[in-house]
Amino acid sequence: MKLRKSTITIFAIVCGLLMLAPIYFLVVGAFKTPDSVFDLSLRISDFTFDNIKQVFAETNIVRAIFNSLIVSVTVTVVAMLIHAMAGYALARLNFPGKTFTFGWIISTLMVPFSVIMIPLYMVVQNLGMANSYLGLIVPMIFNAYGIFLFRQFYLEFPKELEEAAYVEGLSIAGTFFRLVLPLSKPIIVPLTIGFFTANWNNYLWPMIINQKEELNVVQVALANIVGGGYETEWSVMLAAALISAIPTFILFFIVQRHLVEGVKTTGIK
Amino acid sequence: MKRMKKNRRKRNEVLTAYGFLLPNLVGLTVFVFFPMIYAFYVSLHDWNALSPKVFIGFDNYVEMASDKRWWASVGRTFLFTLIYVPALYCLSLFFAVILNNLKQKYQSIARTMFLLPFAITSVISAVIWMFLYDPRNGVLNQLLSSLGFDKLEFLGSTNQALVSIVVVILWINIGYNMIIFMASIKEIPKDYYEAAKIDGASAWRAFRSITFPLLRGTSTFILIVTMIASFTVFDQIMVMTSGGPASSTEVSVLYIYKQAFEFLNMGYASALAVILFLIIFILSLAQLRLYTKKG
After folding, report:
1. For chain B, which residues score pLDDT lower than 70?
2. ipTM
3. A47 within a domain of the structure (yes/no)
C-alpha cells in the first residue's frame, strides 16, 4: 500500500512537470540567441538579454501592458461595485417587478459575446467610444454572472446585522455601503480574480473595437508581434510572450490560495 | 405615526432598490439586450458597413443554407467540441482523483504545477505552442526524431491542426477544472470510502459507486460551461492558424469574424451569428436551469 502511494505521488509529479514543460521552454527560449533557440541543451554561451532588450526597444509592449492594466482594473472595480449593489437589491430589498427583473438579468447570461460582437461593435461606434479606453472598458463591465453570484451571497448573509443598523437609524443605502459591502470580501475576492483575469485575457473585443496602436492591449500587441512579421525571430517572440506573461504570473502567486478557495463560490473563471 | 414611518421606509426601500439596479439595467440593455435584438434586425439587411443598409428579408438565411464554408465551420465546431469536452472532462477528473490521494504537501505542489498554465493567457499559450509545434525544429519534433518517429507537421497539416489546437486549450484549462473537481471530492464524507474498504471494494469500484455518482452536479456544471466555451472558441485558433491550413481549423466564430470584419458583410455575418446563437441557446437553457436550481 505504501509503495502504491509513492508510485501515485511520482506519477502526479511527473505529469505536473509535463504541464510545466511549455513554460520552461518559454522562459529558456526567451534568453537564447536566435541561432540556439531550438537547441535543447543549455549552454552559458547561448544565454543573452538581447531578445528582451529588442522587445523593449522595438515594440510598444510596455505601453500595451499598461493599457491592459487600466482596462482590467477599471472594469473589475466598477463591476464589483455595481454588481454588488444589484445583487443586494435582488436578494434583500422588496420592490415591484423583482422577479421579472431577476429573470431578465439572468436571461442575458444566455447571450455569448461572440453572438453579439457585430451589433455591439456598431453600438459602441455610434456612441463614439470606438478607439478609446471607454470602448474597451464600458461594454465589458456588464455581466449578469457577477450580479447572480452577489445575489447568491447576500441571500445567505445574516439579517441581524442589517436590522441592528436600521435600529441605529442608518438608511438602507448607508447600511449597504458601510456595513454589508465591507463584509462581502468572501465573494468579492474570487469575483475580482475572475473579472480581472477574464479581462486581462480578452483578445477578441479589443481587436475589434480598437485600431489605434497606442491603445492596444497586451494580448493584441503580442498577437501582432507574432503575426506581423515573418522576419521576427522565435527568440524575440518568446521574449515578448514572456514579458507579457509576467503580470499574470505575479498575480497567480499572490492569489493562488484564493483561487483554490474561490472555486467553490464561483466555480468558473 | 409608526405606520407613516413604516410607509416611508417602504418607499425608501423601493427607491434604493431601483437606484441600486439602475446602472446594470441601463448597461445590460445597451450592451447586451439591444445588440441581441439589433443582430436580428441587421441580419435582414444587405450591409457592407460603408453603404446604407438595404432590407432584403430572409435572403441572408437563404444564402446561408447553401454556404458550404459556413456549414463546414459548424461541423468543425462540433468536431472540436466532441474532442475537447470529453478530453477536458476525463483528464481533469482523473487528475483530481489522483491528486486527492496524495499527502497534503505533495498535493499542494502538484496542484500548483497543474494550475500554473491557468496564469497563461490564450494568446501567450498560442505563441508558446507554435514554438513547440515548429515543423522543422520544434521541441516536439526533436522529441519524435530522437524516439525514431517521423516528424509531424502539426499546425501545418489539415489533419493535425485542429487536434493540435485542442491540446493547447486543454493545457491551460485542465488545472482549473481539476480544482473544481477536487473541491467537490473533498466534500464527500470519508466514511463512505471506509465502509467501501471494509466491504473489500477496489479503488476503481469505490470511484465508480461513490465518487462518480456524487460528483454529478459538478460534472454537469463543468460539461455545460465547457461546451458553451468550445462552441465559441476563437483566440488560439485566430493566433495560431487564422483558420488554416485550407480552412481546416475555421470554426464558426472565426468564420463569422471574417465575414464581418474582413469581408465587411455585416448583414450576412449577423445572420450567421443568429444561427450560432440558436445552437448555443439550447445548451444555455440547460445552464440556466442549473443556475436557477442552485438559487
Report:
1. 1-3, 287-288, 290-295
2. 0.91
3. no
Q: Give residue-wise pLDDT tens across range B263-285.
A: 999 999 999 999 999 988 887 77
Element (H, E) at A194: helix A185-201
Does pLDDT of A229 surpass 60? no
Q: Do B274 and A115 touch (CB under 8 A)?
A: yes
The 10s digit of each residue's pLDDT in A102-139 is 999 988 888 889 989 999 999 999 999 999 999 999 99
What is the nearest CA distance from A205 to chain B, expressed in angstroms?
A: 11
Q: In sequence order, what are the beta bridge partners of B55?
A: B45
- With respect to residue A180, please indicate whether it lies within any of the assigned structural domains: yes
Q: Which structural domain range is residue A224 located in?
A: 57-266
Q: How many domains does chain A have?
A: 1
B142 part of a folded domain: yes
Domain limits for position B11: 2-43
* A29 in a structural domain: no
The closest CB to that of A139, out of B31, B123, B179, belongs to B31
Residues of chain A with Cβ-Cβ distance to B23 below 8 Å are 82, 85-86
**Taking CB atoms and an 8 Å limit, are A106 and B292 in contact across chains?**
yes
How far is A199 from chain B, CA to nearest CA, in Å?
10
Look at residue B262 and tell me if it is in a domain: yes
Distance CA B251, CA B82 (A): 13
B67 touches chain A (CB under 8 A): no
Q: CB distance A123–B38 less than 8 Å?
A: yes
Helix (H) or strand (E) holding B75: helix B68-100
Cα–Cα dist B139/B145, whole Å? 10
**Rounded to an integer, what distance in angstroms lies between the CA atom of residue B190 and that of residue B228?**
34
Q: What are phi and psi of B57, to 5 degrees?
A: 60, -135
Q: Does B14 touch chain A (CB under 8 A)?
A: yes
| B207 & B151 share domain | yes
Q: What is the number of CB-based contacts under 8 A between chain A and chain B?
A: 284
